Each structure stands twice: as C-alpha cells, then as structure tokens.
# Entry
Amino acid sequence: MHIESINIGASESISHNDKTLITGICKFPVTGSVHIGELGARDDVIVDSQHHGGLDQAVYAYSADDYDWWAGQTDRDYPPGLFGENLTIRGLPTDVNVGDRLLINELVLEATSPRIPCGTFAARMKDSKIGMAFRRAERPGIYFRVLNAGEISAGDNVTLVANDASSVSILELFRFNYALRHDIDDMRRFLKAPVAIRFREKIESRLASAEQSAD
# Structure
C-alpha cells in the first residue's frame, strides 16, 4: 500500500437544494510533508466538531481502489479528497477490523469506525441519492485515531498491522448502523473493541434498549 494523496480542507460555503452549509468537507491534495497529530492533519479544518473530528476520528482514509470501483459504476470522476478523506490510499482494503493499525513512517493510526454519510456529504456530491448509494456500496472508508504522530508525504508506503484481539470489522459496524434489529451478544462484542466514542455511544444506547426489551 502507499499514500496516493494527502488532502486538506478549508472552511467554505457549499449549496445544494436551496440550502447553504459552511463545511470543511471539500478537501484537496497538497504537496510536501504533512504533520499528522492527535487531532489530525495540520491545517485541516473541521467545522462540525459535534459530529466530525476529535481524537477517535482524527483521520479519515479512503481507498483509491474503491474510487476506481465508483468510477466503474458511474460516469463521473473521483479525484482524491472528493469524499472528504484526509488520506487516499492505494491498496487500502475496504474492510479491516477495528483496532487494526496503519504504519506510515513514524505515524501510527488505529481503525475506529466506518464513515456514515450525512446531509453535508450529499451537498458536497450535489446528489440527494448518494447516501443510499453509499450504503448499498458498502465502501465507507475508515476513521482512525492517532497513536503516534508523524510526518508523511504522498507516495509513502503504508503497512497494515492486524489487531488479533479484535474480531469486529468496519463493515460489521457499518451494517449495524442501518439494521432495524440488533443482537445483544453482538453489541456486547462490539463494545470490547476500541470503537470510536461517537459510535460506541450509539451501540450503548441500542444495547440498553434491547436489554430493557428483553427483561
């Protein structure tokens, strides 16, 4: 694997369906060395900090191979950064386990959760149907926390190190997000993995409801 592109976003206004949003989702490739710290890429802007960014969603990575898949399904281009990812990585698997790590020079990233599309994503893509298409495609990209900061550049090699202690996959969590029914044992298993705090709270809430219904 290698980094195909490092993408940084600034705060800007986008419009779709008569709505205007201020967002940092529009990210574009940068050249040279970029520092990745515990809160993500230096100079990258997070506008909606309630739902995005933070220690457990510091870096969003998307597979260049999955962009190739999208291009094969549609008639549009998919340049690096289009989905709002910080890292576009060639060879990144669509699915890994929560807790799996990426090593890039001194940088150590740990997978925490899938990306769940929102209205801002639809506005960025200027496509109200992209949320459903994204769900069906099951190519959500991966959020990471930063375990060790470091400097990286486009072209750097990326090594995937599996976390043998975790059996919870990114796609499993992605499907869980949309499921109408949830298995209590599965949710308890999810919570044993180093899942991102926002997603963890979602699991905890659904688990509490399921346990209450089972009583």
